[in-house]
Amino acid sequence: YNRSLYMNNIREIKDYQIVILGLLIALGAIISTFVLAHGIVSYQKLQNQTLSVTGSASQEINSDLAVWRAFYEVRSKDLKSGYAKINADKKVLNDFLIANGMQQNDIQFSPVSSFPVYKKLGNGYDSNEIDGYRLSQNVQVSSKNVDAVDKMSQQTVQLVDKNVEVTSNNIEYYVSNLDELKIKMLAAATKDAKERAKSMVQSTGGHIGSMNSAKMGVFQIVAKDSTDVSDYGIYNTSARYKKINAVVNATFTIK
């Protein structure tokens, strides 16, 4: 009887140990699966991480195209004499421009505009009676000889002595190869964005992968010493010496 009881106890202990071992194996499998899954997710997250940076580039540029605009007008009692006077003024002005270094191909005259001038009534209002005519004409000079245009614009006062009433605007300065400059500046800004990204990631032991996307910002073409910025971009035409600023927003993968 005692031997039989002893053998039953042995079998119960073994069964219990088998159950415990099975539970341990199952628990280990669950933990291993969790750790492996967590590692895969972490790896995937690391591989999918991206970094967005903003790169910029600037360059000082000199305008190589100057545009000068002006208009002149005459008043006359009749259209015939008015056209004769404004055509004479046109010749005087054209000769003045040629004498000051402008090329004929750089000079453009608009058609003549004429408007009737009515006599005034006692109450200050216009009557229906024509008192004369006012004729005007615009002229534009576009030249790559920027120095000559600058100098010419300062000599227009001489036309007053020749009875030509000229009203001139400020010179506008442009850059003729702006499209080429934009491409160059975008490349420089993109390079700057990549260098910024490298600097930021290397400090954490990571590396920059491929560039996922790049978005061009607005161009700021401002006076040389200006700090003006606009969300819509700027193209300053009043300054001869300018600075062009380019911005690129780029996204890189981290590996």
Keywords, please?
single chain; 255 residues; alpha+beta; 6-stranded antiparallel β-sheet; 5-stranded mixed β-sheet; 4 helices; elongated
Structure notes:
By secondary structure, the protein is α+β, with helices and mostly antiparallel strands. Helices cover 40% and strands 35% of the residues. It has helices spanning 2-48, 79-99, 146-153, 178-202, and strands spanning 50-62, 65-76, 107-109, 113-120, 126-143, 166-168, 172-174, 208-216, 220-223, 234-235, 241-254. A hairpin with a 5-residue loop joins strand 4 (113-120) and strand 5. It starts with a helix and ends with a strand. Residues 32-46 have low confidence and may be disordered.
**What is the global morphology?**
elongated
Q: Over the alpha carbons, how many angstroms does the gyration radius reach?
A: 41 Å
Kindly name the structural category: alpha+beta
Q: What percentage of the residues does DSSP assign to strands (E)?
A: 25-35%
How far apart the termini lie comes to 72 Å
Give the uncertain stretches in residue-range form: 32-46
User: What is the average per-residue confidence, as pLDDT, rounded to a whole number?
Assistant: 84
Helix content: 25-40%
Element-level helix/strand string? HEEHEEEHEEHEEEE
Count of individual helical segments: 4
Number of strands: 11
Largest beta-sheet characterization: 6 strands, antiparallel
Brief summary:
This protein has 255 residues and is of the alpha+beta class. The protein is built from 4 helices and 11 strands.
